[in-house]
Amino acid sequence: MFHSTDRLAIFIDGSNLYSAARALQHDLDFKRMLDWFREKSVLTRAYYYTAVVEGEEFSPVKPLVDWLDYNGFSVVTKPVKRFTDGSGHSRIKGNMDIEIAVDMLELAPHLDHAVLFSGDGDFRRVVQAVQAKGVRVTVISTQKTQPPHIADELRRQADAFLDLSDLMAEFGRPKTGAAQ
């Protein structure tokens, strides 16, 4: 699946990965994750995408974003949008799908292999487009939760699917209860 000479990039849908890891009752060790991929191939880029709430004195994602930024990840953020739903409830939205899709397509000519950490079926088409450029795509999410975090159409489109639960021995750690 992974070849030592492959030029590889990682694309992490932060909220999707967080949700899958939480459902598996694990936290992720991002340093071990990078080391694991570096052992398997030539890691050219590791992207982490997340929406951030602006104007809050403390954001729980801020320490993670800062750590990732200083430790080998290209962090892509954008502010969440606040809106009122049809029931009058205040909601926030911070979808990063377009940013991930554009970066995957732009980097494709320079890659042999792309790894997408997301189970979102909306990515099926961009995976197909990247494959058409000659890039193998591995999707990492989980189907070992109820409901599964991986959309069937995305799993079928990918060249390979790795279940996140099977990788926890490599770069996961059991949830401690305290924020990491």
Automatic annotation (TrEMBL):
<protein>
    <submittedName>
        <fullName>NYN domain-containing protein</fullName>
    </submittedName>
</protein>
<feature type="domain" description="NYN">
    <location>
        <begin position="7"/>
        <end position="164"/>
    </location>
</feature>
<dbReference type="InterPro" id="IPR047140">
    <property type="entry name" value="LabA"/>
</dbReference>
<dbReference type="Pfam" id="PF01936">
    <property type="entry name" value="NYN"/>
</dbReference>
<dbReference type="InterPro" id="IPR021139">
    <property type="entry name" value="NYN"/>
</dbReference>
